[in-house]
Amino acid sequence: MDYISWIRSKVGHDKVFMNFAVAMIRNGKGEVLMQQRGDSGLWGFPGGCIELGETFEEALRREVYEETRIRELEIIHQLGSYNRPEFVYPNGDVAQCIDVVYICDLHETVDLSYRDSETMDLRWVDLSHLDVALFNPDFDRTIKDYLDWTGPKSQEDYIGWIRSKVGHDKIMLPSVVALIRNDKGEVLMQKRGDSGLWGLISGCMEMGESFETALRREIFEETGAQNVRIVQQLGIYNWYDSPQHFPNGDVAQFIDTCYVCELTEAIDLSYRDEAGETLELRWVGLSTLELPLFNKNLTKVIEDYLEL
Are 34 and 108 members of one domain? Predict the structure, then answer.
């Protein structure tokens, strides 16, 4: 029996303390995932009461999965704790609620059509132009704090923005590289759309991303794979003496953070993305590599990988 059911079986509707973990899950457009609740038909954020013996983070992940079926969640920041002195639920239960609110990022695509007894609807919402009715009026303060938060903000297409300012000039770009291996010891390689040459799955970070968030996003964008296990960090490579020259004239000094990864799903080697980044995918034995590389710096990364 869950804690709420048990405590209510003892005290009925009387006022008790309840402790909640709440997720403000954001996407790359600056929107936040909101849930239309099954008990009231009003809107809130995924989350729920912690169970005995759970941490707030464990409760957060469990509740988010139960209400949205999201498994891959990255907790970015604890926004704060909020005390609701008295809240009356539609069934008559009364509680003083302590909400611990977390800002989170996704590592998978959310199915907005998911429904269960707790979730009537899921929707991405721009909190600066909120147009849904909140089940908890105190969320106004939580939303204000979120909008005022000065931590990492999502910003799509950093390269497009910075190139609009500096043109083709050489700039420093932090990027992530995935050496995705299979059980045969092969590594997944990509034939790139910009040059027709081969490389590892990789890409530049966006503002507000962690290394792991950027890695999972790039893997999904370039291969369609969503279920990735990061095994270890291979190393960080600063190519200060070997800048990359792109076919369009852009020049960049890359600082690559490289990870060894494994897939927990079958990969579709016929995958091609709409942006044209991926012309072909192929499993390759790196010890006998014969494919032409788009970037000679990858030779050092491959050497280090083979020495593991």
Answer: yes
CA proximity to 26, closest of 70, 83, 57, 59: 70
Residues 185 and 223 in one domain: yes
Find the domain containing 206 and state its range: 158-306
State the CB neighbour count (10 A cutoff) for residue 123.
14
| Angstrom distance (rounded) from CA 292 to CA 304 | 19
CA angle 131, 86, 122 (to 5 degrees): 30
Residues 137 and 262 in one domain: no
Distance CA 228, CA 216 (A): 7
Query: Alpha-carbon distance 137 to 115, whole Å?
Result: 24
DSSP per residue, 115-182: --SSEEEEEEE-GGG--S-BS-TTHHHHHHHHHH--S---BS-HHHHHHHHHTT--EEEEEEEEEEE-
Helix, coil or strand: residue 24: strand
Per-residue pLDDT of the chain (308 residues; tens, 9 = 90+): 899 999 999 999 999 999 999 999 998 788 999 999 999 999 999 999 999 999 999 999 999 999 999 988 888 888 999 988 898 999 999 999 999 999 998 878 899 999 999 999 999 999 998 989 999 888 999 999 998 885 545 445 788 888 888 999 999 999 999 999 999 999 999 999 989 999 999 999 987 778 888 899 899 999 999 888 999 999 999 998 999 998 899 999 999 999 999 998 889 999 998 888 999 999 999 999 999 999 889 999 999 999 99
Count of other CB atoms within 10 angstroms of residue 65: 14
Residues 259 and 300 in one domain: yes
CB 263 within 8 A of CB 225: yes
Give the integer Cα–Cα distance in Å for 236 and 202.
13
Domain match, 195 and 279 both: yes
What burial class does residue 187 get, using C-beta atoms within 10 Å of its C-beta: 0-12 exposed, 13-18 middle, 19+ buried? buried
Rounded to whole angstroms, the Cα distance separating 73 from 104 reads: 7
